[in-house]
Amino acid sequence: MLTTYTYPKFEYRTPPEIASGQTLKVPVVVVGAGPVGLGAALDLQLHDVPVLVLDEDDTVSIGSRGVCYAKRALEILDRYGVGDAVCDKGVSWNVGRTFFREQEVYNFNLVPEPDHHRPGMVNLQQYYLEEYLAARAASRPNIELRWKNKVVSVVQTGKTVTLKVETEDGVYTVETDWLIAADGARSPIRRMLDLEIDGKIFMDRFLIADVVMKADFPAERWFWFDPPFHPGQSVLLHKQTDSVFRIDFQLGWDADPEEERKPENVLPRIKAMLGDQREFELEWVSVYTFQCRRMGSFNHGRVLFVGDAAHQVSPFGARGANSGLQDVDNLGWKLKLVMDGKAPARLLDSYSEERIFAADENLLNSTRSTDFITPKSKVSKTFRNAVLGLAKNHAFGRALVNSGRLSVPAFLTASILNTPDEADDTFAGRMLPGAPMDDAPLRDTGADCWLLDKVGNRFIALYFADDAAVLPAPTLAMLANLSCGGIAVQPLVISARPGRLAGDIPVLEDPRGIAAQRYDAKPGTVYLLRPDQHVAARWRTLDAKKIKAAVARATCNA
Questions:
Q1: With 409 labelled, which of 12, 125, 307, 354 sits at a CA distance of 20 to 30 A?
Q2: What share of the chain is helix, strand, coil (3-state, %, to 5)?
Q3: What is the per-residue pLDDT across 151-180, written as a single tens digit (0 to 9) for each?
């Protein structure tokens, strides 16, 4: 067990279906109570969808495992109600440094501009994130958590999925309309349905060591190529909470995983890095290999795959849990519309298409990072070292350094759900259709707030005005009546001046013009925002027919 963390033990309760012999019928089942599975349940709960979560364990993950949570994942966690807990407990950072031997050759800043609510990254051991998510899920009225409930059989028909669930008290049956498989890289659900996952396993091994120590290292990401304390290999250092530091040592493919885990082999590596004088305790050790793989499709009938069950990437770049949370952020609102009969099942195909695009982007970046970090030939290593040698003094060399391109949200610019800009509408900046929204500081009736806290979970028409108090009556009437085919569209006005509207349309003030600048907005500019805080469409003038057509397109009703 760990010295810095006490594992919770979640209560197992005997399922009443074992005694009654009845089949439990629920709208949605999530298998797997890791960060992605719990995220899926919380996302659906925001849409008032009842969810049953099944997990074969009764505690959180062993060891720190996932460490880095990127800005976009933090913004999603804000919607799920745990963003503050993660940021308050974790170690926030924006700066990363790369060293070649003993010299710094490259550094970066994940958030180079001010006025963002969340930092570029927060480091926090995965068990804390799971604990916060589990507590949040347990407090929600539409989520039932069943621990020590292991799915042993999955049978899919045209309209339902039937599960056999094994417990210490016996087996019972669950029938569900939709099954979300969040059961990890080895996904038993994927195996039960005889589905494949294809890709590449890289022939290298890495040692993870979580070390407890008092050190004045800054809250930054440090990566070494060929350091004197681990010659010929690479090392990564991350600061976590509770004075825990994550150290990753490259070992090479020939390393024996069982031998490398032994303290008598781990401790000398750490002492060589930290020096004999620094006191530390070894908290947790693991050995892993890189994998870059994904399924051919993330939706199979009524079974939907998310997170590591659908795709796996190497850990350099922090793309695992971050991309999994973006999966469920993309999926939840679409599944709700399909369940309510307000969108066709084709909308769930768009989940697979959009998240496969994101997965391929992650896989490409992870593969490139892995090839740079672990060159497989003398020629590749010579090139890599030449790049590192040039990087200190030459910008073109720094551009080629790749110690793990860090997780960023996918810009879904090619999505079929987007409405393209009109020919006469020109925009600057990056908030184009398909983009994840940029945050901005605003004011709400005199109190400071953030844009992303005011949007999400529904379609929103974001209207920019110079002075909301003088908007003409026809504009207000149009904003108040934007629903499309039973799909509500909430108007939200961003005003440069602190004027208020008469009526129920909310107004946010943009006194410093930061939101208008980030969205290249002039008075009258309109953005249609998806429930997952991606841009669906934008125009320079308000037109209710165009907004309704864009909503229809974004829900596959066009």
A1: 125
A2: 30, 30, 40
A3: 999 999 889 999 999 999 999 999 999 999
> pLDDT category, 503, cuts 50, 70, 90?
confident
The C-alpha torsion from 390 through 395 and 401 to 406, rounded to 10°, is: 160
For the beta carbon of residue 497, count every other beta carbon within 10 angstroms. Answer: 13
Distance CA 52, CA 231 (A): 50
Tokens 């890599």 found at: 384
Beta bridge partners of 249: 207, 235
CA-closest candidate to residue 320, choices 35, 127, 33, 54: 35
Q: Output the pLDDT for position 140.
A: 97
pLDDT digits 0-9 by tens, 234-244: 999 999 999 99
Q: Other CB atoms closer than 10 Å to residue 318's CB: what's the count?
A: 23
Consecutive H or E run containing 264: helix 263-274
* Helices of type H across 143-245: 188-192
SS3 at position 400: helix
267 — pLDDT class (breaks 50, 70, 90)? very high
- Cα separation of 98 and 404, whole Å? 10
Q: Report residue 171 as tokens.
A: 């087996």
433, 413 contact by CB (below 8 A): yes
Q: Which two tokens stand for residue 376?
A: 């497989």
Beta bridge partners of 442: 449
Contact 381, 201 (CB under 8 A): no
Pure H helices in 96-233: 126-138, 188-192
User: For residue 263, what are its two tokens?
Assistant: 């303290």
User: Does the pLDDT value for residue 1 go beyond 80?
Assistant: no
**CA 89 to CA 133: how far, in whole Å?**
14
Taking a C-beta distance cutoff of 8 angstroms, is the pair 115, 440 a contact? Answer: yes
For residue 527, what are its two tokens? 């953005």
Domains with residue ranges and CATH for the chain: 16-90+118-196+294-365 (3.50.50.60), 200-291 (3.30.9.10), 372-400 (no CATH), 441-554 (3.40.30.10)
Neighbours of 297 (CB within 10 A): 13
- Residue whose entry in the numeric block shows the structure tokens 């350099």: 316
- The closest of 16, 32, 23 to 310, measured between CA atoms, is 32
d(C-alpha 501, C-alpha 252), whole Å: 64
User: Distance from CA of residue 216 to its chain's centroid?
Assistant: 30
Beta strands in 120-197, from DSSP E residues, in sequence order? 121-123, 143-147, 150-156, 161-167, 170-181
Residue 461 near residue 490 (C-beta atoms within 8 A): yes
What's the CA gap between 31 and 229, in Å, rounded?
43
* CB contact set of 129 (below 8 Å; sequence gap of 6+): 35, 66, 69, 82, 86, 321
Q: Read off the pLDDT band of 317 (50, 70, 90).
A: low
Element (H, E) at 54: strand 51-55
Rounded to whole angstroms, the Cα distance separating 139 from 117 reads 26
- The reported pTM is 0.95
